[in-house]
Amino acid sequence: MRILDESGARALTTSVARSGRELEALEAEWEALYAASPAATPFQSWAWLYSWWEVYGERYEPCAITVRSGGELAGLAPLARERGTGRVLFMGTGPSVYLDVLARGGEEAAVVRAVAGRLREELRPWEVADLQHLRPRAAARGLLEAWRGPAASLWQTNCPVLEARPFEELLGALTQKQRGNVRRLVRRSEREGVRAVAAGPEEAADAASRMLGMHRKAWRERGINPEHLSPRFEVLLRAAAGRLTARGLGFVSEFRRGEEVVASHLLLVGHDRVGGYLSGATEEAFRRYAVYPLYVRDGVEAARSRGLEAFDLMWGRGEHKLQWGPEMVPSRRLVLGRNRLPLWAPYAGHHLLRSRVKAAVDSGSAPRPVMLAAEGYRAARRLIRRRAAG
């Protein structure tokens, strides 16, 4: 497919990668495009998404739309068709905090228009494109305006984000009692020789497994995401940690006391921020150090040392995150279709209702029966998914 850019001076061409082999062959171009795409996050890198494809790809048919300008890759919509569901999704849907189209800086609007045109051709009349977890800067948000057909934009979730200020300044958001406790526990960790050590590329996979093992033990009875208990999630983490670390897009930071690893977290290094994706700690570390302040200090220092503006706490509304006074940054989902029926209208309507209920529950403004029903639903879903994960 050939499309003129906005000025009409240069043609953009689109094609579709339909196999894992084609995705693998895009590695060098994909990573160069990621580096040139200011809105992209590490979740759009080849290192992350190809690792996801290796683990979860059997459930999908790739239909990644490439956009070229003068033969060079200017944009990429890493999409996949979920088998048997009538949905086209971003690759990485599920374990990825943010999803998006990659678009070279300065060419975002033209790339999005090209993606919209090709996606409409690819989408079957009975299918929907469900494009989730789009942060405010996401290039893919432009698809809402560019799309010729039924489209809905829905709130999906909020992610807490801290400005990368000195740790002592961040303590100002806590109560006096909380500040005293944090300082006491941080001093204890320092007296006992706890230090953060970044795992290198050769150590990253094993460091990811250690982190996940501690995470599973600590959270198994505390409402863990059931997918985190599955063997395939560990395979994803091991592969992605090695590739991300080798490319400078992330690393596992381990808190060591002597030779013992007492806590760790996987940090992702983006264009504008560092994000804390997953963490784990021993029960002793939770008791002796409270741990989360160590993660915050480490993440903020990682951002500041790289000249980045923020430490993204990513998913979750736990008090251990909210007490730091983060900005709650909304992510949205786009539901696109060729026709309102048979699928788009009921699918979009269902998720619109869910979005409104979830927003009310998260804000605490929902009636008490709705709050209780939502908690019961979440508990049942966790149980079902945990059993399904084995």
Describe the fold and architecture:
Helix 8 (204-219) packs across helix 9 (231-246). The strands form 2 sheets. The chain has an 11-stranded mixed beta sheet, with helices on both faces. The protein is α+β, with helices and mostly antiparallel strands. The longest helix is centred in the C-terminal third of the chain and has 24 residues, at 340-363. 43% of the residues are buried. It folds into 2 domains: 2-158 and 329-345, Gcn5-related N-acetyltransferase (GNAT) (Aminopeptidase); 165-308, 3-Layer(aba) Sandwich (Aminopeptidase). The chain contains 14 helices and 16 strands. It has helices at 20-25, 27-35, 46-56, 108-122, 143-146, 167-170, 176-191, 204-219, 231-246, 283-289, 292-305, 319-322, 340-363, 368-389; strands spanning 2-4, 11-17, 60-62, 64-69, 72-77, 79-82, 87-90, 102-103, 128-134, 151-163, 194-198, 250-257, 260-269, 273-281, 310-312, 327-337.
Number of helices: 14
Number of DSSP-assigned strands: 16
**At the fourth CATH level, what is the homologous superfamily of the largest domain?**
Gcn5-related N-acetyltransferase (GNAT)
Broad CATH class of the largest domain: Alpha Beta
- Strand order in space, largest sheet: 3-6-7-9-16-10-15-14-13-12-11
Binned strand content: 25-35%
Biggest beta-sheet profile: 11 strands, mixed
CATH-defined architecture of the largest domain = 3-Layer(aba) Sandwich
Main structural class: alpha+beta
Outline: globular
- Overall mean pLDDT stands at 92
What name is given to the CATH topology of the largest domain?
Answer: Aminopeptidase
- Give the count of structural domains: 2
Order of helices and strands, N to C? Answer: EEHHHEEEEEEHEHEHHEHHEEEHHEHEHH
* End-to-end separation: 45 Å
Helical proportion, percent range: 40-55%
Low-pLDDT stretches are none
Radius of gyration: 22 Å
Protein name: BioF2-like acetyltransferase domain-containing protein
Domain BioF2-like acetyltransferase: 177-321
Organism: Rubrobacter xylanophilus (strain DSM 9941 / JCM 11954 / NBRC 16129 / PRD-1)
Pfam families: Acetyltransf_6
